[in-house]
């Protein structure tokens, strides 16, 4: 319970300091230039919305890229550790085709 209270106190302090810092920054900008302040206040939420949109769209692409990179790594490790078996069964062409397919999936 003591740690929970300390954690909540720390979160409250950080939140209060953050809000206070934003307000002081806005007041300082208002004293410097009104138009600049209005532009910042309008463009900041817009940039956050755009960033969120891009992050949502790119997450799935990065996930697919990571999976494909894992498949490529697995194929390369397999080829290095099983090189003599691949050569003895004359499966180089088939293995190269699998590598090309993995590369094509990775590059798009």
Automatic annotation (TrEMBL):
<dbReference type="InterPro" id="IPR011527">
    <property type="entry name" value="ABC1_TM_dom"/>
</dbReference>
<protein>
    <submittedName>
        <fullName>ABC transporter ATP-binding protein</fullName>
    </submittedName>
</protein>
<keyword id="KW-0472">Membrane</keyword>
<feature type="transmembrane region" description="Helical">
    <location>
        <begin position="34"/>
        <end position="55"/>
    </location>
</feature>
<keyword id="KW-0547">Nucleotide-binding</keyword>
<keyword id="KW-0812">Transmembrane</keyword>
<dbReference type="Pfam" id="PF00664">
    <property type="entry name" value="ABC_membrane"/>
</dbReference>
<dbReference type="GO" id="GO:0005524">
    <property type="term" value="F:ATP binding"/>
</dbReference>
<feature type="transmembrane region" description="Helical">
    <location>
        <begin position="7"/>
        <end position="28"/>
    </location>
</feature>
<dbReference type="GO" id="GO:0140359">
    <property type="term" value="F:ABC-type transporter activity"/>
</dbReference>
<dbReference type="GO" id="GO:0005886">
    <property type="term" value="C:plasma membrane"/>
</dbReference>
<keyword id="KW-0067">ATP-binding</keyword>
<feature type="domain" description="ABC transmembrane type-1">
    <location>
        <begin position="1"/>
        <end position="108"/>
    </location>
</feature>
<dbReference type="InterPro" id="IPR036640">
    <property type="entry name" value="ABC1_TM_sf"/>
</dbReference>
<keyword id="KW-1133">Transmembrane helix</keyword>
């Amino acid at each position: 319970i003591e740690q929970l209270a300390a954690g909540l106190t720390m979160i409250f302090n950080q939140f209060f300091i953050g809000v206070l810092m934003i307000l002081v920054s806005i007041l300082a900008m208002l004293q410097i230039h009104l138009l600049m302040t209005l532009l910042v206040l309008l463009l900041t939420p817009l940039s956050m919305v755009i960033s969120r949109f891009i992050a949502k769209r790119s997450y799935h692409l990065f996930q697919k890229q990571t999976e494909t990179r894992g498949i490529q790594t697995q194929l390369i490790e397999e080829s290095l550790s099983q090189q003599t078996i691949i050569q003895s069964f004359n499966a180089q062409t088939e293995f190269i085709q699998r590598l090309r397919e993995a590369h094509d999936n990775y590059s798009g």
